[in-house]
């Protein structure tokens, strides 16, 4: 390797195009395409009696209007339930266009195709839908107790119910241990809805080639391979006739892993039917009411512990609001209930959740995907134990930590990948030590007293988490070195700003010993790589990174084999530096990878002097062996897959100092510190950026963002005016420190980093406000108005 | 989110604009900065048949600053007024309030008179006009009238501008000697509409005793709520004035509503807190003036 | 329909638009300048920010017909004619001030105008300057860093220009 690339803050190769307006997002494509708008339900729960389009037919520029009745058989079925689970006894998904009943505001009812979006919206405004109003079910507790049903055939609105029990080492269950524990606490926790809210909404653009009978679809998705399979299945097309490409994607954060969205099958269908390119670009209002939300849970916690704060038994009952449909199964509450334990070894654990239907937008993973709620639960529990015992909050955590010599550590649960939840590596005591140092934990009481003397209230909070990352089943990588010496890398998963083109090029360049400039990377294009799962669960670097490294190793081995023959050397004596294969120790003996690539592909036809060296009269080959030997393939390329035995577990700890205004109850974060361990870092600059972004979303979820539904199921704040995503003025400066505990599970020793920053946000801020105010903070997010109410309640 | 169709009018003179508006009557709407109107159009919450765009009327992009006050033309952008040193010298409250209006990029386009005509009780400028006792000049072909602030704000998003009329300018009286002003607000995010806000004006006599103290409250009623708290403060120097009583007096006068961002009680509480802070700030300014 | 003439990134462009055509759509779909992004269409996110006669404005809250005859600069027009990225663009790259890149054109336009007016802004002035632009990826920290870095690059370039002009003046 000529220059060190792995582990360096290499600048991003995505940036030049994104900085000059040359990025290509879905809506930047298809200049001549017809455009789509939808008539969406204005009601949370209603039966469609009639759809009258007669007023709309005169709009000039109208091309087509479709309702459920127009859909062909395959499309007229409910959309797929992506992740079935035995506990999801009553999974329900929506029809691409509502059939008879609409179950949330925003559900698509009529699809309109017109010359442009303005006209399509004009048409929508003229279509009359006659609804018979049904009673909406709103609020997870209300739904759990309601006689009113979201789906007529789902009793009690319960979609899924799951209990997991992990007994103690001596076989006692959590409830028994809590009964006999020296101390017990019982409390309730609440977290409200937020959403991924990428700045680019969803979008689909489809081109049907009638001559070739093939379809090309561009979608702003986190999984192009699976969208492709879904489209082929739903439109009855042979898979090889469908291509799906995720171009530049303006953020995902989870919402774009769901698929196929109604629009992802309807737009290509319309393009085929109309014989014209068709595009739909989601607007912000649509995104609020017709994509997905996350986070809302109510948790009932019972914990038993000893005099030192050691948790003997923990019993958590969760009500999870999954909205009107369950396309993504019950992944979110599964993650909450299994990642809840964090860095702690708990005597015995019992967790039960009910996943409940409500007449609201469906709930699917948003960055963190259930972990923020689990961490909120565990960390609130730790703080409450500390408060009860009058102990330091870090001391209580420390006594419960899994120790570095206890890895691999089996939590005894089944994780979201259907595999045992076994932590691979970590060093939690060291993380805590670093964090305490970074934030000045031990000096804080003096700081607080000083502030108090000035009439100011400040508080310090902490939150620890463990994050299962890099879930399977697999990803693949393909690497090809062409006869010009260029390295072409592709992988199937998609990118939404994580800098994959850069980090994968770093990995490939390091593995192959070529300059990074020679490496190009393509992601999310099924024309280049057809097998993939997708980008979610902080898995891209772990999964595709390792797959690409493995593919590079294959190519490297082949290159050395071919070069060894050409150089008449032993492959073991060769190294690749700067794109040249050299004999170690004899500087003159070398051959460029470009030439190796030429030699790897025996040719009949030459197209330049370089390739002439591989033609059949160029000599050199043995007449005893075929030009391509058994078991070999022409070309200097390799493909490999990485499929881990189970997830790898990153971890981290955050601390924050907040100030609460004694008069206005405004909450300001003064400092925010992060210690993060995601194993070996490929590009520290990018990891740091991921953490910053995650923390900002954590702060948003803790202090600003919530989806506010009224009793009628109307989302009251479906705009950026009232859904308060933080601006720069709301986000504190973030101080970070890294610990690198390599994962023993994969060749690169890496763990995922994408979601980490957001996970402990609500836990940390609640902890800090509680410290400042001396009032229990068990409900997040919290606004100044709510803090004001809590103060009044506390003072009676 | 695309605006519905409308007939677009681009008058080249004030006369043309007034004619176009008069003709459109109740179906017409004025487009100035568009920073409130266009979001409503994009969301199709408004659908005027005629839009009269006054952006070409440079004759309305005026700022007349005199000893009596500032007359702001209908096309003067927030940023233009905010940056004007002459305006700041005559009436510093304008700059202080303008810095709280949305974000700098919005202020590059939005107009002061447009904000007043929009009559949002959560906005800063209506409170400023109400506090200072300014007025808005309205015109229709051949008729011009000045409407004092007290009569201008009629209800939430409802002003005295009648259909066919154009708000051509607004007048903000100058700050008198021995007077001080201040603006305080609490918003969820920087630049958001305030949960509560106070514009305060304090005048002192030659002995530096309070002769008048007034506040205008934001976001706690259908229109800016002006409260005279002179009596509550007492005819005393600011250092010994009863600011707490003044704050109570303000709190008692407002009737906020609960919404998704804050309860009515909290807004009332904030109004009191901010009133006291703003009055103290204004008194400090007055003492130095 | 209205026939309008805009000077976009120094080029005179004529286009026919309905009165309701938003400037953002006109730039993106009529003129093919898709670097200007649309994130909310109600003026809050700032993705669509362009320079109108040098001043940053929301192109989603501006009708194309209103700015007939005016000068518009979009993200495509920030680099030098030879393609060299502007100091602001370079600084964002250097400081990792972007991730998905969707909000970036709005930030770049806003910051370009900010630094033109205030070449050495304080931390508070930077915050205020970018306070109307949402970013969902970066947590803003590296954006703030990028703004300071851009100011630094511009100062360096001004110094370099001044130095190179010095001998020239002597000759004259």
UniProtKB/TrEMBL annotation, chain A:
Protein's name in the database: CO or xanthine dehydrogenase, Mo-binding subunit
Coiled coil: none
Presence of the UniProt keyword Transcription regulation in the record: no
PANTHER family in alphabetical order: ALDEHYDE OXIDASE 1-RELATED, XANTHINE DEHYDROGENASE
One Pfam family this sequence matches: Ald_Xan_dh_C
Organism: Streptosporangium subroseum
Record domain Aldehyde oxidase/xanthine dehydrogenase a/b hammerhead: where: 20-135
Gene3D superfamilies membership: Aldehyde oxidase/xanthine dehydrogenase, a/b hammerhead (3.90.1170.50), Aldehyde oxidase/xanthine dehydrogenase, molybdopterin binding domain (3.30.365.10)
GO MF terms held by the record: iron ion binding; oxidoreductase activity
Keyword Oxidoreductase: yes
SMART domains membership: Ald_Xan_dh_C
Alphabetically ordered keywords of this record: Molybdenum, Oxidoreductase
InterPro entries assigned: Ald_Oxase/Xan_DH_a/b, Ald_Oxase/Xan_DH_a/b_sf, Ald_Oxase/xanthine_DH-like, AldOxase/xan_DH_MoCoBD1, AldOxase/xan_DH_MoCoBD2, AldOxase/xan_DH_Mopterin-bd_sf
UniProtKB/TrEMBL annotation, chain B:
Top-rank taxon: Bacteria
UniProt-listed Gene3D superfamilies: 3.30.465.10, CO dehydrogenase flavoprotein, C-terminal domain, Uridine Diphospho-n-acetylenolpyruvylglucosamine Reductase, domain 2
Any one GO molecular function term: oxidoreductase activity
Ranges of residues in domain FAD-binding PCMH-type: 1-177
SUPFAM superfamilies to which the protein is assigned, alphabetical: CO dehydrogenase flavoprotein C-terminal domain-like, FAD-binding/transporter-associated domain-like
Sorted UniProt keywords: FAD, Flavoprotein, Oxidoreductase
Keyword Flavoprotein tagged: yes
PROSITE patterns: FAD_PCMH
SMART domains named among the record's database cross-references: CO_deh_flav_C (SM01092)
Protein name: Carbon-monoxide dehydrogenase medium subunit
Automatic annotation (TrEMBL), chain C:
Highest taxon above the source species: Bacteria
Protein name: Carbon-monoxide dehydrogenase small subunit
Domain 2Fe-2S ferredoxin-type as annotated: residue spans: 2-78
Listed CDD domains: fer2
Pathway the protein acts in: Alkaloid degradation; nicotine degradation
Transmembrane region(s): none
InterPro entries: 2Fe-2S-bd, 2Fe-2S-bd_dom_sf, 2Fe-2S_ferredoxin-like_sf, 2Fe-2S_ferredoxin-type, Beta-grasp_dom_sf, Diverse_Oxidoreductases
Annotated keywords: 2Fe-2S, Iron, Iron-sulfur, Metal-binding, Oxidoreductase
Coiled-coil features, chain-numbered ranges: none
Gene Ontology terms, MF aspect: 2 iron, 2 sulfur cluster binding; metal ion binding; oxidoreductase activity
Any Pfam family: Fer2_2
């Amino acid at each position: 390797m000529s220059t060190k690339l792995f582990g360096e803050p290499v600048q991003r190769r995505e940036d030049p195009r994104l900085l000059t307006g040359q990025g290509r997002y879905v809506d930047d494509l298809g200049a001549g395409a017809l455009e789509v708008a939808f008539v969406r339900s204005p009601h949370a729960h209603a039966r469609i009696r009639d759809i009258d389009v007669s007023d709309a037919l005169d709009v000039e520029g109208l091309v087509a209007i479709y309702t459920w009745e127009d859909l062909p058989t395959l499309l007229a079925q409910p959309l797929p339930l992506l992740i079935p689970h035995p506990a999801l006894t009553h999974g329900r998904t929506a029809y691409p266009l509502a059939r008879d009943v609409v179950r949330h505001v925003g559900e698509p009812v009529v699809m309109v195709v017109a010359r442009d979006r303005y006209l399509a919206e004009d048409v929508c405004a003229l279509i009359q839908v006659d609804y018979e109003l049904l009673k909406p079910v709103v609020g997870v507790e209300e739904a759990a107790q309601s006689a009113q049903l979201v789906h007529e055939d789902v009793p009690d609105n319960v979609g899924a119910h799951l209990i997991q029990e992990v007994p103690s080492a001596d076989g006692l269950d959590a409830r028994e241990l809590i009964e006999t524990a020296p101390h017990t606490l019982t409390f309730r926790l609440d977290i409200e809805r937020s959403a991924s809210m990428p700045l680019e909404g969803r979008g689909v653009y489809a081109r049907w080639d009638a001559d070739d009978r093939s379809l090309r679809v561009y979608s702003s998705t986190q999984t192009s391979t699976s969208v492709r399979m879904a489209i082929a299945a739903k439109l009855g097309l042979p898979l090889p006739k469908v291509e799906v490409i995720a171009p530049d994607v303006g953020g995902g954060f989870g919402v774009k892993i769901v698929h196929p969205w109604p629009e992802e099958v309807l737009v290509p269908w319309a393009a085929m039917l109309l014989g014209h390119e068709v595009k739909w670009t989601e607007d912000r209002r649509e995104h609020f009411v017709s994509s997905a939300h996350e986070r809302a849970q109510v948790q009932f916690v019972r914990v038993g512990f000893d005099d030192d704060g050691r948790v003997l038994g923990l019993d958590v009952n969760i009500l999870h609001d999954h909205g009107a449909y369950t396309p993504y199964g019950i992944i979110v509450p599964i993650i909450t209930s299994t990642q809840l334990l964090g860095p702690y070894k708990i005597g015995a654990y019992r967790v039960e959740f009910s996943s409940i239907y409500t007449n609201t937008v469906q709930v699917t993973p948003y960055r963190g995907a259930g972990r923020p709620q689990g961490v909120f639960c565990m960390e609130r529990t730790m703080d409450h134990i500390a408060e009860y015992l009058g102990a330091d909050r870090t001391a209580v955590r420390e006594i419960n930590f899994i120790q570095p010599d206890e890895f691999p550590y089996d939590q005894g649960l089944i994780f979201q990948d259907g595999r045992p939840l076994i932590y691979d590596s970590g060093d939690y005591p060291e993380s805590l030590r670093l964090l305490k140092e970074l934030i000045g934990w031990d000096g804080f009481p003096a700081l607080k007293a000083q502030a108090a003397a000035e009439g100011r209230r400040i508080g310090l909070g902490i939150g620890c988490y463990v994050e299962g990352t890099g879930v399977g089943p697999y990803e693949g990588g393909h690497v090809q070195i062409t006869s010009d010496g260029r390295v072409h890398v592709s992988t199937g998963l998609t990118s939404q700003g994580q800098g994959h083109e850069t980090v994968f090029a770093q990995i490939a360049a390091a593995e192959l010993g070529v300059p990074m400039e020679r490496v190009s990377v393509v992601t999310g294009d099924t024309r280049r790589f057809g097998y993939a799962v997708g980008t979610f669960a902080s898995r891209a670097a772990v999964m595709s990174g390792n797959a690409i490294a493995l593919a590079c190793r294959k190519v490297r081995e082949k290159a050395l084999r071919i070069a060894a023959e050409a150089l008449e050397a032993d492959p073991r004596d060769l190294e690749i530096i700067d794109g040249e294969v050299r004999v170690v120790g004899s500087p003159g003996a070398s051959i460029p990878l470009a030439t190796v690539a030429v030699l790897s592909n025996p040719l009949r036809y030459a197209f330049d002097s370089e390739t002439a060296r591989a033609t059949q009269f160029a000599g050199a080959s043995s007449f005893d062996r075929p030009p391509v030997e058994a078991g070999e393939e022409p070309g200097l390329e390799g493909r490999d897959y990485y499929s881990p035995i189970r997830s790898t577990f990153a971890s981290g700890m955050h601390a924050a100092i907040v100030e609460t205004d004694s008069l206005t109850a405004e909450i300001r974060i003064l400092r925010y510190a992060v210690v993060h361990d995601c194993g070996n870092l490929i590009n520290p600059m990018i990891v740091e950026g991921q953490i910053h972004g995650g923390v900002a979303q954590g702060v948003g979820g803790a202090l600003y963002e919530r989806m506010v539904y009224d009793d009628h199921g109307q989302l009251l704040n479906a705009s950026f005016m009232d859904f308060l995503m933080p601006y720069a003025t709301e986000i504190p400066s973030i101080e970070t420190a890294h610990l690198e505990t390599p994962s023993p599970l994969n060749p690169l020793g890496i763990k995922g980093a994408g979601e980490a920053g957001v996970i402990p946000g609500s836990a940390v801020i609640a902890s800090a406000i509680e410290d400042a105010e001396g009032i229990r903070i068990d409900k997040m997010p919290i606004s100044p108005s709510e803090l004001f109410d809590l103060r009044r309640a506390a003072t009676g | 989110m695309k605006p519905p169709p409308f007939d677009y009018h681009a008058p080249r003179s004030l006369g043309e604009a007034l004619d176009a508006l008069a003709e459109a009557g109740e179906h017409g709407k004025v487009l100035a900065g568009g920073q409130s109107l266009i979001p409503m159009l994009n969301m199709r919450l408004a659908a005027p048949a005629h839009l009269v765009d006054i952006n070409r009327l440079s004759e309305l992009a005026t700022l007349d600053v005199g000893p009596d006050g500032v007359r702001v033309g209908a096309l003067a952008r927030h940023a233009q007024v905010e940056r004007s040193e002459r305006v700041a010298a005559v009436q510093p409250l304008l700059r202080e309030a303008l810095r709280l209006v949305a974000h700098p990029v919005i202020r590059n386009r939005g107009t002061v008179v447009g904000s007043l005509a929009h009559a949002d009780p959560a906005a800063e400028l209506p409170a400023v006009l109400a506090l200072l006792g300014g007025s808005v000049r309205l015109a229709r072909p051949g008729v011009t009238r000045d409407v004092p602030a007290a009569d201008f704000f009629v209800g939430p998003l409802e002003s005295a501008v009648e259909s066919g009329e154009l708000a051509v300018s607004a007048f903000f009286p100058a700050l008198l000697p021995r007077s001080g002003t201040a603006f305080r607000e609490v918003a969820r995010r920087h630049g958001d509409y305030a949960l509560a806000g106070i514009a305060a004006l304090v005048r002192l006599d030659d002995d530096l005793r309070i002769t008048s103290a007034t506040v205008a409250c934001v976001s706690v009623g259908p229109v800016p709520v002006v409260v005279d708290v002179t009596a509550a403060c007492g005819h005393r120097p600011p250092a010994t004035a009863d600011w707490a009583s003044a704050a109570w007096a303000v709190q008692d006068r407002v009737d906020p509503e609960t919404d998704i961002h804050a309860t009515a009680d909290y807004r009332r509480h904030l109004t009191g807190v901010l009133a006291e802070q703003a009055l103290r700030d204004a008194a400090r300014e007055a003492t130095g003036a | 329909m209205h026939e309008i003439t805009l000077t976009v990134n120094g080029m005179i462009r004529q286009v026919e638009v309905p009165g309701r055509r938003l400037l953002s759509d006109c730039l993106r779909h009529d003129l093919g300048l898709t670097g200007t992004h649309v994130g909310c269409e109600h003026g809050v996110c700032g993705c669509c920010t362009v320079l109108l006669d040098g001043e940053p404005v929301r192109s989603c809250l501006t009708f194309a017909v209103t700015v007939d005859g005016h000068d518009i600069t979009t993200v495509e027009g920030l680099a030098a004619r030879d393609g060299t990225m502007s100091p602001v663009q370079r600084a964002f790259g250097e400081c990792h001030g972007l991730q998905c890149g969707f909000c970036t054109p709005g930030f770049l336009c806003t910051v370009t105008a900010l630094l033109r007016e205030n070449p050495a802004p304080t931390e508070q002035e930077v915050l205020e300057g970018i306070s109307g632009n949402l970013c969902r990826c970066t947590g803003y920290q590296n954006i703030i860093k990028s703004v300071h870095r851009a100011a630094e690059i511009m100062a360096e370039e001004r110094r370099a220009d001044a130095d190179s002009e010095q001998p020239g003046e002597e000759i004259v």
